[in-house]
Amino acid sequence: MTRNDMEKKANDRLSIDHTWYTTRISARHAARKPYAPADPGVISSFIPGTVVEVMVSVGDTVEEGDDILILDAMKMKNRLKSHIAGKVTSVNIKPGDRVSKGAVLAVVECC
Amino acid sequence: MALEKKIRELKEKREKMLLGGGEEAIRKQKAMGKNTARERILAILDDGSFSEYDMFVEHDARDFGMDKKHLPSDGVVIGTGTVSGNPVAIYAQDFTVAGGSLGLMHSRKITKIMDHALKMRIPLIGINDSGGARIQEGVNSLAGYGEIFFRNTISSGVIPQISVILGPCAGGAVYSPALTDFVFVVDNISKMFITGPEVIKTVLGEEISMEALGGARVHCETSGNAHFFSVSEDECFGQIKKLISFLPRNNEVRAEVVETVPPDSSYDIENIVPGDPTLPYDVREVIRAVADGSDFFEIQEMYARNMVIGFGRLGGRTVGFVANQPLEMAGVLDVDSSDKAARFIRYCDAFSIPIITFVDLPGYLPGIDQEHAGVIRHGAKVLYSYSEATVPKLTVILRKAYGGGYIAMGSRHLRADFVFAWPTAEIAVMGPEGAANIIFRKEITSASDPDEVRRQKVEEYKEKFANPYVAASRGYVDSVIEPTETRRLLLHGLEVSSGKHVQMPFKKHGIPPF
């Protein structure tokens, strides 16, 4: 089949309003990701890029708005700041590292 | 004689131009499984109907050594012709000439034929096969794209616009197809993206192939940017011709009426839909059981499959079918299926094509992903497009029509002209299980045997509300019909509404939930 799984049998189950329907589940629906609220202590890459400079090390105390690192992405040097005041509990990157989108770069724990 | 010599000269000049980028470039094009620009045009148009214009147009760029470069026809072929006797305007980018790159004169040729198409009110077919902007021509090529996009927009809803992607179509160039009505792609040949794999790799460090990023399959299955998938250029050309046969030439005339052919007698309309509303079936069988000659031309068959859309004919006249597909995701409305249906409904309305809706859905797909992806806004598109459509709207409720889904799917309340329901229809605020759980919560939870009481209450609810008669008693359904009466009533409904006239309040344009 050129249109690949079009002929797949309909024997998946889907519940809508307490009723179970026999049907086919789309690949997109099956692959959907569970929702997780953002943790303000986690500094993650909002875009893939390269770490240029890291301003903190584990154990440092930071204030809200303090610079954590500089991420070079899309021809911009982005300054990633701490969202909260607290203590740096982990730094997972060093200058020169390439990071993918959503990677956890550093963690600040609230005091 | 001088005349003879001049004619010979013209012939020689033409011969040269017809070779495009030359034999070597043509050999390379063929090696990729691709036809040349002129071959493609000739394959789509009726034999002997193609008239080419602007064959001798040349660029006059001077920078970066361009003054020494001769680009035959400036890398694009334009003209007019007919498809099954219907006039069309057509252009095809010629990849053998400087990679089909778009410079100022190249774009002027395209906009010239676009202007013709709009002025003459005939369909426009654009064949895209281009490496993108001709960098040497700088901002002039950007201006060229802008002029094309503007015309695509102005022509939208006036003449049918068809885009055929037969090669790369990258960067800004993708926005011309995106602004047109139907996009055709061919497996392993079409490539569409805003930023290509190279850029993605250098900027983001992510590796992906062209095919996986923006191949035909991706745009048909995942992004929804393309409408027709094929495995060869020939199959693609066949699809284009078939599509054009359903469409009117412009928004002021109707599509050609052909001879009425009854549906294939092998479709047994009474035995397609299972009585149990939780069991699946292929709703396209119902469409084929009703449509002239059982011919249903599906659009976007690989995308958001829980909604089926496409053209067919009833009594020889083109109609647009919109149907929930219980075979896929129980036929729910979700972000993608709403978007798919809404756009098609607006297409039909723009080109005076009546809309036939078959309803069988449990409602909207629950989920955090759906809510966060904006199912409110996307779902609203369906309500908007049905409400605003003034073409004849005929709705047949086959089975489930629950809650918001019932309202959205071409209901009486959105001004369907005729609403029919099969005896299997269940028009209710939600499915019996859900409703009983809410209405009889107290009785169920306080019972010594809650499961038994729940079962009883579900039965009670089913008996009372899971049918078409409550809605029929309010006149929301015009008629409860036998499945075998469906075709006759649709034909009659179309006949009755052929002179439909609705006056909408004056507006510049509405604000649909884009």
Topology:
The complex is a heterodimer of chains A (111) and B (514).
Chain A: E1 12-16, E2 19-23, H1 27-30, E3 42-44, E4 49-54, E5 61-62, E6 67-73, E7 76-81, E8 86-91, E9 98-99, E10 104-110
Antiparallel strand pairs in A: 1-2, 3-10, 4-6, 4-9, 5-8, 6-7, 8-10
Chain B: H1 2-18, H2 23-31, H3 37-44, E1 51-53, E2 76-83, E3 86-93, H4 104-120, E4 124-130, H5 139-155, E5 161-170, H6 175-179, E6 182-186, E7 191-193, H7 197-204, H8 210-214, H9 216-223, E8 228-230, H10 233-246, H11 283-290, E9 297-299, E10 307-314, E11 317-324, H12 335-350, E12 355-361, H13 368-372, H14 375-388, E13 393-402, H15 403-408, E14 418-421, E15 426-428, H16 432-439, H17 441-446, H18 450-465, H19 469-473, E16 479-480, H20 486-496
Helix pairs in contact in B: 4-5, 12-14, 16-18
Cα separation of the termini of chain A = 60 Å
Number of helices of chain A: 1
CATH third-tier fold name of one domain in chain A: OB fold (Dihydrolipoamide Acetyltransferase, E2P)
CATH top level label of one domain in chain A? Mainly Beta
Q: Which CATH architecture of the largest domain in chain B is right?
A: Alpha-Beta Complex
Q: DSSP strand (E) fraction of chain B? A: 15-25%
What percent of residues of chain B adopt helix (DSSP H or I)? 25-40%
Number of domains of chain B: 3
